[in-house]
Design brief:
With 213 residues, the chain is of the alpha/beta class. It contains seven helices and ten strands. Helix content is 32%, strand content 28%. The protein is globular, with a radius of gyration of 16 Å. Bound molecules: adenosine-5'-diphosphate and magnesium ion.
């Protein structure tokens, strides 16, 4: 568990235009914890994950990863190296990359390719990402993320990683993610996935609260 990342979010506000979509979120996650984020569509879950990665601007508050409050471009690059990222497929999103190019962006491309083969998406290496089914794309993102963890990433951020999978695929991916010896923050509507996590956070209208089970 030595490589796991600590995450401290305090008074975080992110906006689209003048609308706060993440609204005063506080969250402390210890190294190695697995935390699920649940909540209705539009509640700010994706924006929160993107802000941790530096892909959405922080309006107020701060996000500290491994005691580093990223400020310079170099800080943000270093932070992204610590994170394995499974994005949510956006309905409008286009991915011009080819599968093998995405796998090459993993911290350990060899492991990423091996896992892609195990997940039966290895033969799609020369396809553009937008020509994959939702389930194939999620397997490719999982392969990249597991390669990054093998290469030293200490935090997995996964945005609805099983949403496009059939039941068997959902259970298999939930098991694989639960087995990771790193810090995990996973957005999910999948009860099995949430039940593998030690904590559940519910977001509503940009606010986050701990759900006690
Ligand atoms: N590109 C955008 N432009 C303007 N508003 C957006 C954009 N993307 C998301 N939003 C709004 O931000 C809010 C939070 O979105 P998001 O973080 O994607 O929610 P979730 O992942 O919980 O479904 C929603 O109200 C959504 O409509
Ligand atoms: Mg989302």
């Amino acid at each position: 568990m030595t490589n796991s990342t600590a995450l401290h979010i305090s008074n975080l506000v992110c906006r689209f235009g003048s609308t706060p979509v993440v609204d005063d979120v506080n969250l402390a996650i210890a190294p190695g914890e697995h935390v699920a984020i649940v909540g209705s569509n539009g509640s700010g879950k994706t924006t929160l994950l993107r802000a941790i990665l530096g892909l959405h601007p922080i309006y107020a508050g701060q996000i500290v990863v491994d005691h580093v409050h990223a400020q310079s471009a170099a800080d943000w690059r270093q932070r992204q190296q610590r994170i394995a990222w499974m994005p949510q497929r956006q309905a409008t999103g286009q991915f011009p990359l080819l599968v093998h190019e995405l796998l090459a962006s993993s911290r350990n491309p060899t492991v990423a390719h091996d896992i892609a083969s195990q997940l039966e998406v290895g033969m799609l290496a020369d396809r553009p990402l937008h020509a994959l089914s939702g389930g194939q794309l999620q397997r490719v993102f999982l392969a990249r993320a597991l390669g990054s963890i093998a290469g030293g990433a200490g935090l997995l951020l996964a945005d609805e990683p099983t949403a496009a999978l059939d039941f068997g695929g959902q259970a298999a991916v939930a098991t694989v993610i639960a087995a990771q010896q790193v810090t995990v923050l996973v957005v999910t509507h999948d009860r099995t996935m949430a039940s593998h996590c030690g904590r559940v956070i519910e977001m509503a209208n940009g606010r986050a609260r701990e759900v006690t089970s």
